[in-house]
Amino acid sequence: MIGKKLKIFLIILIGLILISFLATIMESSLSYGKIAMVNVKGIIVDSKAVIEEIKQYRKNPAIKAIVLRVDSPGGAVVPSQEIYEEIKRTIKVKPVVVSMGSIAASGAYYISCPATKIIANPGTITGSIGVLIEIPNIKGLLDKIGVKAEVIKSGKYKDITSPLKPPLQSDEKEVLQRLIDDVHDQFVDAVSEGRKIPIEKVKKIADGRVFTGLKAKEIGLVDEIGDLEYAIKVAAQLGNIKGEPEIIMKKTTILYELLKGDTESLIKRLLPTSQIYYLYLPQTN
Asked: Are 64 and 241 in contact (CB under 8 A)?
């Protein structure tokens, strides 16, 4: 009698274990998968934080796809190139969908190029495939207050971008133009590779002009038109997520965003230094 009860108990126990196991499998197959959202906002002055975030999500098997929310006019060349390369590595592991906000121009478009899908709003300002270098010149101001700088250099062009020297001469402009052309060619190559567009076709629109999201779709710079919610939906489909995905996002404070974002960009731009930019700068009078 006791043996019979024990058998019934064991059968019930095994049954409960099997039901629990099957429920887990079904839940997994329905996959309330996770999508990570990485924000790129403001002028791109550094790549470290964005790369670390992308790398963390790439290595996490629970994250099925990444949405890169871009709202930036671009920024420094090297950080843009480094983020581009990190996205190239990531799309080999899981899909990356770019969602463009109000603006995703120049360096911000550069980092978007290799994504699995690029989705822009109809009125997004994007494109601006081009390069610029700003050389502040404060010599006139220093002359007025009686301050002079003595420069000892090893070559004619060593201080070519110094804010303390007279305005650029024609030969100096030629040197810098060759530099700009080289970096510009790198941008064109990146767009061609990332978007799989022939280089000659990219060159025709790589003169710094900007496009709306609608026009960018027409010429192949973006894949689809849609908002952030639509981009999340596309990412879920590409990540084989069924049902409503869970959105994972790095938590930051308002103070952190202020210190990290535009304040940092503003400080770097106000300092009298020269740097090459993939940056969209609307002209103001």
From this structure: yes
Asked if 212 and 204 count as a contact pair (C-beta separation under 8 A), the reply is: no
pLDDT tens digit sequence for 261-270: 555 554 444 4
185: helix, coil or strand?
helix
Sheet holding 74-76, edge to edge: 74-76, 275-279, 132-134
The token pair at 8 is 């019934």
DSSP 279: E
Average pLDDT (231-249) is 93
**What's the pTM value of the predicted model, to 2 decimals?**
0.80
CA-only gyration radius of the chain, Å? 26
Residue 89 tokens read as: 């590595």
CA gap 52, 226 in Å, rounded: 27
Q: Which two tokens stand for residue 154?
A: 């090893």
Higher pLDDT, 62 or 12: 62
What CATH class is the domain 33-279? alpha beta
Each domain of the chain, given as residue ranges in start order, spans 33-279
Whole-number Å distance between alpha carbons of 94 and 56:
12
CB-based contact 87:111 (threshold 8 Å): yes
Alpha helices in 62-169 (DSSP H): 77-90, 107-112, 139-144
Q: Is 174 exposed, middle or buried (0-12, 13-18, 19+ CB in 10 A)?
A: exposed
Burial letters for 221-243: b for 16+ Cβ neighbours within 10 Å, e otherwise?
bbbebbeeeebbbbbbebbebee
The catalytic residues are: 106, 158
